[in-house]
Design brief:
Shape: globular
Structural class: mainly alpha
Radius of gyration: 19 Å
Helix content: 55-70%
């Protein structure tokens, strides 16, 4: 993987594009986009159902790097991928601004008895201290947030930006991001008492999954806005890490409160 350029030679992201990746025609480019989206969804099944938990971080990171490298080879510039060096500081600043509201929202959720149940997760509560530290310090920021941002706000968004306006590219990548969360949602229905009402009802479980797909799709749009606004993948990475890590800590705290 070559080093992202910081000399400003590449066009900035956010400007409408009409060319197809690497000079391909519209039909070939559309097929490429559909194939890329399908490959990402298929990989989501692999990482959730096949890859052992101990390999989650390195495999997911490797997949993220491979996805970015593939789209770069197809003609997307480092700015299109959110990896230009001169935008990194802007990304960290914008992403950092979101952490306080996230922490405040989690705190409010824990303070309200009705919403507190949604933080209750037996897997998180029963995890040992070393397991919790591994999750907060490595699994979430690198294996989940960084890998997913490389795949969705890096590779997929960068690919879609080659032919579509920024908001269309953001919507397309966010839709795939929502579908990506179907299996993790199904996995969590058995461990989160807040979702216990869906037990035994396929209709309610389908509704719960649909809600999460919609919510994560909306979150994907917000992450895409952060990425396009700052010009750096570091903005959504920091926010994504904050959502997951602070939420995880909230679940640990809920376990202490309920004792």
């Amino acid at each position: 993987m070559t080093t992202p350029s910081s000399n400003g030679a590449e066009p900035k992201t956010g400007s409408p594009r009409t060319r197809a990746p690497s000079g391909r025609g519209g039909g070939a480019a559309a097929a490429l986009e559909i194939g890329a989206a399908a490959a990402v969804v298929a990989y989501g099944v692999l990482i959730n159902r096949v890859v052992p938990s101990e390999l989650y971080v390195p495999v997911n990171l490797a997949a993220g790097v491979a996805a970015v490298a593939a789209v770069h080879a197809l003609g997307a510039g480092w700015r299109d991928l959110g990896l230009a060096r001169d935008r990194m500081l802007a990304g960290l600043k914008l992403g950092g601004l979101t952490l306080i509201p996230i922490a405040a929202a989690v705190g409010l959720g824990l303070a309200i008895p009705w919403t507190r149940d949604f933080f209750r997760d037996s897997t998180i509560v029963n995890a040992s201290t070393p397991e919790a530290l591994y999750t907060i310090l490595l699994r979430i920021p690198l294996g989940t947030a960084m890998a997913e941002e490389l795949i969705f706000r890096g590779a997929l968004l960068g690919l879609f930006l080659q032919r579509h306006r920024p908001w269309v590219a953001a919507a397309l990548s966010s839709a795939v991001f929502g579908v990506w969360h179907v299996l993790p949602t199904l996995n969590s229905l058995d461990t989160n008492p807040g979702a216990s009402a869906t037990s035994g009802s396929l209709l309610l479980q389908a509704a719960a999954v649909a809600f999460v797909v919609l919510a994560t799709g909306v979150a994907g749009m917000f992450f895409s806005w952060l990425r396009l606004r700052s010009g750096s993948i570091l903005a959504p990475w920091l926010t994504h890490t904050g959502f997951n890590a602070i939420g995880y800590i909230g679940s640990r705290l809920e376990g202490l409160i309920s004792r």
